[in-house]
Amino acid sequence: MMLMRTIAIALSLMALHCSSDGGDDGGALENSVSLLFDGEDDYGSAGDIDITLSETFDVCSISLWFKPEATPAEGSMMMQFNPEIEGGRNAMQVSIYWDTSDRVALHFTPDLDGVPGARLFADLEDPEGWNHLLVTFDANASSDNVRLYLNGEETGSADQGSPMEAIGNIQFGRQGTGVNHYNGYLDEAAIWEAALSADEAVSVYRDGRPGNVLVDYADYRSSAALKSFWRMGDENFPTEANVSDRISGNNFTIVNGGMFADDTP
Ligand SMILES: [Ca+2]
Ligand SMILES: [Ca+2]
């Protein structure tokens, strides 16, 4: 009798769970604001990469939601590792930018002056709306070490099996020390020290509604490997002109007037 009742309660809890927002995953996260960059001089400057990732990392994933405010100029930079090329011209760099007005690109290289690294592209069906990119990197895979996903679907992969040295810092909204400013919104940026799977890419995209990557849900199983999570104003330290990192404390400073906006995916 007790067993029957336990089963009945378990079944009713499952039914409740399945009827919640999103259908099956419980991964909902309230998301009220994103960060808008003016395309003139705004940018966000986070701390060193090695606050987020290991000094040498052989796996990582990067998640970023974005929506331009105006037709993006070619080269507009949304997010960059090592923007000032610290360590000289042979340094690592990761860049997520607009290649054309309807195509975004990833450049992921351990050696900017030497090997070409991985350069991948994603054509946008709706370049004016919110879109989601997920980059995954696994130096230990035999091939296709770097993969790019747009809205949960893989758009390309490349061989780049060299581990990455964490050199320099992480920057949002411009390239280098002051070119290719991005005019638009960024939201819910995340970095893991793990290479997320194709199934996880679908779950993180979550049909266009950012999920709560602080916990596992659906096919997403990498919450323990989440290293930085910038919500772009949600759950922010209230008195600072910055964006709080929920995990590692790699908070970033908003420079030259980026604004929190109530436009979110
Ligand atoms: Ca947000
Ligand atoms: Ca400004």
Word description of this protein:
The chain is mainly β. Helices cover 11% and strands 37% of the residues. It has three helices and 18 strands. Strand 6 and strand 7 form a beta hairpin. About 7% of the residues have low confidence.
Pick out its properties.
265 residues, mainly beta, Jelly Rolls, 2 domains, globular, binds calcium ion
- Please state the average pLDDT score: 90
Number of domains: 2
Distance between the termini: 47 Å
Tell me the β content: 35-45%
Number of helices: 3
Say which molecules are bound, naming each kind only once: calcium ion
Draw up the topology in text:
Blueprint: H1 2-18, E1 34-38, E2 43-48, H2 49-52, E3 56-57, E4 59-68, E5 77-81, E6 93-100, E7 103-109, E8 118-123, E9 131-138, E10 146-150, E11 153-158, E12 164-165, E13 169-172, E14 183-192, H3 198-205, E15 226-230, E16 242-243, E17 252-255, E18 259-261
Antiparallel strand pairs: 1-14, 1-18, 2-13, 2-17, 3-12, 4-9, 4-14, 5-6, 5-13, 6-7, 7-8, 9-10, 10-11, 14-15, 16-17
The protein binds calcium ion (2 copies).
